Amino acid sequence: KQEVTQIPAALSVPEGENLVLNCSFTDSAIYNLQWFRQDPGKGLTSLLLIQSSQREQTSGRLNASLDKSSGRSTLYIAASQPGDSATYLCAVRYNYQLIWGAGTKLIIKP
Amino acid sequence: NAGVTQTPKFRILKIGQSMTLQCTQDMNHNYMYWYRQDPGMGLKLIYYSVGAGITDKGEVPNGYNVSRSTTEDFPLRLELAAPSQTSVYFCASSYPTSGDHSYEQYFGPGTRLTVT
Lengths: 110, 116
Prior knowledge:
The complex is a heterodimer of chains A (about 110) and B (about 120).
Chain A lengths: L3 E4 L2 E5 L4 E7 L6 E7 L5 E8 L4 E4 L2 E6 L4 E6 L8 E9 L2 E4 L3 E6 L1
Parallel strand pairs in A: 2-11
Antiparallel strand pairs in A: 1-3, 3-8, 4-5, 4-9, 6-7, 7-8, 9-10, 9-11
Chain B lengths: L3 E4 L2 E4 L5 E7 L5 E7 L5 E9 L2 E4 L6 E3 L9 E3 L8 E8 L11 E2 L3 E5 L1
Parallel strand pairs in B: 2-11
Antiparallel strand pairs in B: 1-3, 3-8, 4-5, 4-9, 5-6, 7-8, 9-10, 9-11
């Protein structure tokens, strides 16, 4: 069964710290992997998409890596800010369907 | 472009009632999807469509129906609402091009549904 797991479920860190969110998947035959941000009561915003042939993608202070063979992806956030507080979701694409992790709730303390 | 729009934003239903959640996209995307998100969980696929006139079941289709008569619209129908259908519903669309952003999904703001 294709499953996606995100650890930790919640994380609270002081402002300014660099941090890493983890995503693991059981089936390595992926097309791509997406990281999303979800603010309370809001929709989802796509942050980064990594194709199966890529190792990493960067956008501003965000860097996502992909290790397909080990079934892992990480989202690195540099110099965290209170505005980064949100739930971060990882989704893995198999064909045109996405399998989702349950998310990591991130709180950045001022 | 408005992107993906959903109506209504909120709805309370009584058990056994029916309703239709509307979803429209103006990006000319072939693929459209309906997900539900329960508290503290990831999203689960209810139904998807790869083009007008074509729909298929996802992971949790029971209690729902869809239709896709146009490229733009993908309504989700709930028949005989049950408390287990209390959730947040998201509609998404994507395009199957090649390249870095193939099948990247764009989401609507969601519909928060409560069945009591």
